[in-house]
Amino acid sequence: MNATMWETLTDFTKWLGREGHCKVDETPKGWYIQYIDRDPETICRQQEMEKKKKQELDDEERNAKFIEELVRRGKEGKEEELPVFTELKRENEEEKVAFNLNKGQSSSATAAPKSSTLGPSPLQTIASVKRKELGHTSSDTKDKKKKSALDEIMEFEEQKKRSLRREYWLHTGIVVKLITKKLGEKYYKKKAVIKEVQEKYTAIIKMIDSGDKLKVDQTHLETVIPAPGKRLLVVNGGYRGSEAILDSINEKNFSATIIIDSGILQGRKIEGVQYEDISKLA
After folding, report:
1. How far apart, in whole angstroms, are the C-alpha atoms of residue 40 and residue 79?
2. How far apart are CA 135 and CA 129, in angstroms?
3. Domain ranges of the chain
4. How far apart are CA 196 and CA 215, in angstroms?
5. What is the pLDDT of residues 183-208, one digit of tens each?
6. Global confidence as pTM
7. What is the mean pLDDT of residues 261-276?
8. For residues 242 and 43, what is the distance between their CA atoms, to the nearest angstrom?
9. How many CA atoms lie within 13 Å of 212's alpha carbon, on the beta-carbon side?
10. CB 80: neighbour CB atoms within 10 A?
């Protein structure tokens, strides 16, 4: 510090914080410094990330409401009201029933035409048949509706699983590589372990070789592919959060074949997983 205006490194650190060049935090373990990147591209990227985060929250709320509606429909098993066919009955079997077959005449003329005594009504027979058919149709429709709601839930969950790709992929306990020179040449291309994830896009990492702790943005990190047979974590995509074992690597397609090693899908082989979707477990 002899060639500067600051007597100590602490004074220099405080000045960086006052001037807004860095975020400075004093902790029991010492000073933590995070460089504030004011590059227009970085600011634009951060604004886009905020928009995407808000959109993801809105999508999650809509998905939750949609699932609740499907579950409610499945439980209630409501069906559309069907027309009810009633039986044609006569209180007095000896009473004569008259039909007016003359079009355009008033209803008062219904008593004038010739009347005839009916035996068993054809409509009565049709009504009884309809009632039997409705009995079977009602139960079939109910089962179909329940099945349809369950199918919709299953299809929705499958689509949701396929669309689990997110803009953020940081997970604790994985090995990553620093790909920025802004923190110094000694950290460039070095490996570290993520100890903590803050607000989805920021990680507290510990360098493997030096043990230094740094606070970095997701854009300054990349995943690390382990050797075949080693354990890894799926950090993005349909199997996000699942632990697996690396089976093989396809260098031409920049993809890998993995074997799920946790959960109900344990032992399942997944092909064509992209490099950026998996990372070595510490």
Report:
1. 57
2. 10
3. 37-88+120-163, 166-280
4. 9
5. 888 899 999 999 999 988 999 999 99
6. 0.46
7. 85
8. 33
9. 15
10. 6
| Pair 204, 222: CB distance under 8 Å | no
Q: Tokens at residue 159, please?
A: 């689509």
CATH label, 166-280, candidates 2.30.30.30, 2.60.40.3500, 3.40.605.10, 3.40.50.720: 2.30.30.30
Phi and psi at residue 73, to the nearest 5°: -65, -35
Give CA angle at 281 (279, 282), nearest 5°: 130
Identify the three-state secondary structure at position 18. Answer: helix
Query: How far, rounded to the nearest angstrom, does the alpha carbon of residue 272 sit from its chain's CA centroid?
Result: 21
Q: How many CB atoms lie within 10 A of CB 55?
A: 11
Give the pLDDT confidence of 39-92 residue by residue, as tens digits.
Answer: 777 778 888 888 887 777 777 777 777 888 878 877 776 554 556 666 666 666
Report d(CA 39, CA 52) in Å as an integer. 20
- The per-residue pLDDT for 195 is 95
Instruction: Write out the two tokens for 170.
Output: 């940081």
The helix (H) or strand (E) run that includes residue 229 is none
